[in-house]
From TrEMBL:
Name of the protein in its database record: Dipeptidase
Leader sequence segment: 1-22
SUPFAM superfamilies the UniProt entry points to: Metallo-dependent hydrolases
Molecular-function GO term, any one: metallodipeptidase activity
Length: 413
């Protein structure tokens, strides 16, 4: 896991110093909000939780409180009234050699298998969703909703035809790129800058095939030029599964107001995230960065670390917060971005993609049990129950429905 994600996750499990006073809610407000959430269909468009499915000792049915490695599990989904969402097949970017592309291909397939194994092991708790209408039916059956997404198209570089297999196995949301450029698209954050000036020819072909199959395209992590290509190329709306407002914080991963309005005009949706580094500048000092690296190394490294080590990891991070404090985004900062997005494009074009288990979360919003605070804030703003329902799931499912309807009318098999 990239260090920037590590440092954010570690800070949350036992709390972290606030850079400003966080918004506060009364117990009555939270109870009212949770009651509404339990009635609504609530989906998060970017869950990195599949990264934990193969972690030693992790059990999706077991509660992993105060653990720097975990923010989502079945008990906490129940407490936070989260019905499910899009469970990501995330793959780290390699060096773009042939060997790296084969390793990425295999990693993606293994992660897909792990998600499907979770579904098979717990059919009474989780169910795969394939259409926009499946989610409400699954919720009515008392189960959690699992849509499958792919963050970073690198597993498809070695063999783009695998997209058809992924679709048959449940893939319904696809992003082309992650932190660095790949063979499909330019990243918003590659230090080398643009390579393709948007989508590559292979990227355009991949996106067109995804549209033919009815897979929704996710722009998060791609460059502004990729956005412009998508806005021109796609006959259907697209989404940003976990992004924020560039007008509030000028980070290359965030979207400017002009493109926000283009997105809305096309029928698309931006899902606001809780990744602190995209809400404000959280850059640590060199000493703090080194201390975080040393802590992770001492506990065995991120990828193979057993789940029980996450508690020790959190305690170590809490000690660093006392010894080498760093600036942190707060829940207030999150709501400033959320409010700006609502002001610019309105409640029919905004949703929620917190980036849980992938760096998302803030003091006061440390795991999925805190999600009713979002609903309480939306209620404070005076949004109707119908508008809140759209933000929690209706908007993203509308985009999916449009993508699937287009594919059905244009020859998808």
């Amino acid at each position: 896991m990239p260090l920037c994600r590590l440092s954010l996750l570690l800070a949350l499990a036992l709390g972290a110093p606030l850079s400003a006073q966080a918004v506060d809610f009364t117990q009555a407000e939270l109870a009212r909000a949770k009651a509404l959430q339990q009635r609504l269909l609530t989906l998060d468009s970017h869950l990195d939780t599949p990264a934990n499915l193969a972690r030693p000792g992790f059990d999706i049915l077991h509660r992993h409180d105060h653990n720097a490695l975990s923010q989502v599990d079945y008990p906490r989904m129940l407490e936070g009234a989260l019905d499910g969402g899009f469970w990501a097949i995330y793959t780290d970017q390699g060096d773009r050699s042939a060997a790296a592309h084969l390793a990425e291909r295999d990693h993606g397939l293994l992660r897909l298998m792990e998600i499907r194994e979770m579904l098979a092991a717990h059919p009474d708790r989780f169910q795969l969703a394939l259409t926009a209408d499946d989610a409400a039916r699954i919720k009515a059956a008392g189960k959690r909703v699992v849509y499958i997404s792919m963050e970073n198209g690198s597993p498809l570089v070695a063999d783009p035809s695998l997209l058809g297999f992924y679709h048959k196995a449940g893939l319904r949301l696809l992003s082309t790129v992650h932190f660095a450029n790949n063979e499909f698209a330019d990243s918003a954050t590659d230090p080398k800058g643009a390579e393709w000036k948007g989508l590559s020819p292979a990227g355009k072909a991949l996106v067109q095939e995804a549209v033919r199959l009815g897979i929704v395209i996710d722009h998060s992590h791609a460059s502004d030029a990729v956005f412009d290509d998508l806005a021109t190329l796609l006959p259907v709306p697209f989404i940003l599964s976990h992004s924020a407002a560039k007008a509030v914080f000028d980070h290359p991963r965030n979207l400017d107001d002009a493109r926000l309005r283009q997105l809305a005009a096309k029928g698309g949706v931006i899902q606001v995230n809780a990744y602190g580094g995209y809400l404000l500048d959280e850059t640590p000092s060199p000493e703090r960065k080194q201390a975080e690296e040393d802590l992770e190394k001492r506990l065995g490294g991120w990828d193979g670390m057993p789940i029980e080590k996450g508690v020790e990891l959190a305690r170590g991070m809490a000690e660093l917060d006392q010894r080498l404090p760093r600036r942190r985004a707060t829940l207030d900062d999150f709501f400033v971005h959320f409010a700006h997005l609502l002001d610019v494009v309105g409640p029919d074009h905004v949703g929620i993609g917190m980036d849980w288990d992938g760096g998302g979360g803030l003091p006061g919003m440390t795991d999925v049990t805190d999600l009713p605070k979002i609903t309480a804030w939306l209620q404070r703003r005076g949004l109707s129950d119908a508008q809140i329902a759209n933000i929690w799931s209706g908007n993203v499912l509308r985009v999916m429905r449009q993508a699937q309807d287009y594919a059905a009318k244009n020859g998808a098999k």
